[in-house]
Amino acid sequence: MSGALFDPRPDGPVTVAPGAVHVPGWLDAERQRDLVRRCRDWATGPAGMRRHRMPRGGEMSVRIVSLGWHWAPYRYTRTLPDGTPVKPFPPLLGELAGAAVAAAYGAPPPPDAPPYDVALVNFYDADARMGLHQDREERVDAPVVSLSLGDSCVFRFGNPETRGRPYTDVELRGGDLFVFGGPSRMAYHGVPRTLPGTADPECGLSSGRLNITIRASGLPAR
Ligand SMILES: O=C(O)CCC(=O)C(=O)O
Ligand SMILES: [Fe+2]
């Protein structure tokens, strides 16, 4: 019998807004476990996961480690503030980004597209959230590729003009892919909450949510 009665999620890509595509269940269990293992490795110091201080003084609830370029609100730098080198951008994430664009849009990035060269790995504990924002530190408009692992979350995806409506709340589960580019590249988006305890025990993350966004910075090669 079809699982559709019990799981109303579509099988294939869903266009949430022009240029914004959700691909449920894109990563199989083995790939999820592999990425969780790698995230653990990337999260360790030096240049490990940290909670960034915002310009107005508060701390982000999400813990972040950057690969390729160091991101802190709101710019990319070559090193961490104390001079520690940023961990390199893993070639695997570049390969996954190309495959992700092909899965979402039906065609891989064009040959002259700027290279994917930076990733932000976000860890959400049960109380973490991310306010609505635009990803605007990049100098080129290549689509942002987002991979989710562990607990599900509510991902709010809006429009490029305002923090308000119209927006769509999408449930992102472990293994899901979300790509936003084209007219949605500058859309406001955020994570109002995670859904603790929803992770597939097979994924290798017993609690919390990991998200990897893979981006093209457009900054000079290092
Ligand atoms: O955690 C997510 O799904 C979104 C992360 C995000 O928007 C970001 O890293 O800029
Ligand atoms: Fe973002």
UniProtKB/TrEMBL annotation:
Keywords: Dioxygenase, Iron, Metal-binding, Oxidoreductase
Residues in Fe2OG dioxygenase domain copies: 115-218
Entry annotated with the keyword Metal-binding: yes
InterPro entries for the chain: Alkb (IPR004574), AlkB-like (IPR027450), AlkB-like_sf (IPR037151), Oxoglu/Fe-dep_dioxygenase_dom (IPR005123)
SUPFAM superfamilies named in the record: Clavaminate synthase-like (SSF51197)
Signal peptide positions (record): none
Binding residues for Fe cation: 133, 135, 189
Cofactor annotation remark: Binds 1 Fe(2+) ion per subunit.
Keyword Iron among UniProt keywords: yes
Cofactors named for this entry: Fe(2+)
GO cellular component, one term: cytoplasm
GO BP term, example: oxidative RNA demethylation
A single GO molecular function term of this UniProt record: ferrous iron binding
Protein name (database record): Alpha-ketoglutarate-dependent dioxygenase AlkB
Taxonomic classification: Bacteria, Bacillati, Actinomycetota, Actinomycetes, Streptosporangiales
